[in-house]
Specification:
The chain has about 260 residues and is an alpha/beta fold. It has a single domain, classed as 3-Layer(aba) Sandwich (Rossmann fold). Helices cover about 35% and strands about 30% of the residues. The protein is built from ten helices and twelve strands. The strands form three sheets. A six-stranded mixed sheet has the order 6-7-8-3-9-10, sandwiched between helices. It has a four-stranded antiparallel sheet with strand order 2-1-4-5, with helices on one face. It has a two-stranded antiparallel ribbon with strand order 11-12. The chain starts with 8 loop residues before the first strand and ends with a strand. The chain binds adenosine-5'-triphosphate. The site of adenosine-5'-triphosphate (ATP) has 11 residues, from helix 1. This is Iron complex transport system ATP-binding protein. It holds the Pfam family ABC_tran. Part of the ABC transporter complex HmuTUV involved in hemin import. Responsible for energy coupling to the transport system.
Length: about 260
């Protein structure tokens, strides 16, 4: 997995199914270094399923995924964990532990032992700083707010330091200022050569921060540069409501309106 690959993630004719329902059929899609993709679409359209399948944690019914040019199915869990990380939509904590310990868990994949080195500790602290939570390093994980807990999850992924970041609704528990910081952080990660894929319900955040958008709808999808995909016609087809496009401060905003 050391040779440079032109794609960090590649879907080749991927089909995803839950029960008898086909969510996606014949998806050909590539994530290159430097790209920040937002996956948009209605509730239940298959965004989480897509992220979990790309992470190798959910079955792919046809086609295959390649991670850094290698078939995902052929990689061991340890190899996968060194090259891709997934932020779940919900974090479930059974035990008390200091926040820094949760972040240090991200380093485990790189040394295989539970004893963190001084460098691991420095990287974990730096990851907490990047998500604005260094003051909570010693706090009990179980005492955090929903937004703080979600950012600890992202810090753990940053400590894991993978090539591909898969994030399921990373902004869902964040206040508006934290959303801007988080989307800026994801864009910076991509600009540094990582591949970032995040599901999102905020079209305006996606169109402002993502380099690319994958817009999913029943039996249809659009993929490409964010400014090309975030257009009223495609958004209306995908979400089933009207959109008015408003230009403000040099940015395009999309205002959803009920259908007449
Ligand atoms: N294990 C399962 N068994 C049956 N159906 C499932 C299973 N997992 C997911 N589904 C269904 O698959 C569909 C896609 O779910 P998914 O969570 O991927 O949607 P989503 O686009 O992420 O939705 P949301 O925006 O609400 O998070 C949903 O209709 C869901 O009910």
């Amino acid at each position: 997995m050391s040779a440079p690959a032109s794609f960090i993630l590649q879907a080749q004719q991927v089909s995803l199914q839950v029960g008898s329902r086909i969510l996606l059929e014949g998806l050909d899609w590539q994530v290159r270094p430097g790209e920040f993709w937002c996956v948009l679409g209605r509730n239940g359209i298959g965004k989480s399923t897509l992220l979990h399948a790309a992470a190798g944690l959910q079955p792919t019914h046809a086609g295959q995924w390649q991670l850094l040019g290698q078939p995902l199915q052929g990689l061991s869990p340890a190899e996968m964990a060194r090259h891709r990380g997934l932020l779940l939509q919900q974090q479930h904590d059974a035990f008390s532990m200091p926040v820094i310990e949760a972040v240090l868990a991200g380093r485990f994949v790189h040394h295989g032992g539970w004893q963190p080195s001084t460098q691991d500790e420095a990287l974990a602290l730096e990851a907490l700083e990047r998500v604005g939570l260094s003051s909570l390093a010693a706090a009990d994980l179980l005492t955090l707010s929903g937004g703080e807990r979600q950012r600890v999850g992202l810090a753990t992924l940053l400590a894991q330091d993978t090539d591909l970041y898969l994030l399921d609704e990373p902004t869902s528990h964040q206040d508006v200022a934290a959303q801007l910081q988080l989307m800026t952080l994801l864009r910076t990660l991509a600009a540094g050569g990582k591949g970032v894929v995040a599901s999102c319900h905020d079209i305006n955040l996606a169109s402002r921060f993502a380099t690319h958008v994958l817009l999913l709808a029943e039996g249809q999808r659009w993929a490409g540069p964010a400014q090309e995909i975030c257009r009223p016609a495609a958004l209306e087809a995908a979400f089933g409501c009207r959109f008015v496009q408003v230009a403000t401060d040099g940015m395009l905003q999309f205002l959803p309106l009920p259908t007449a």
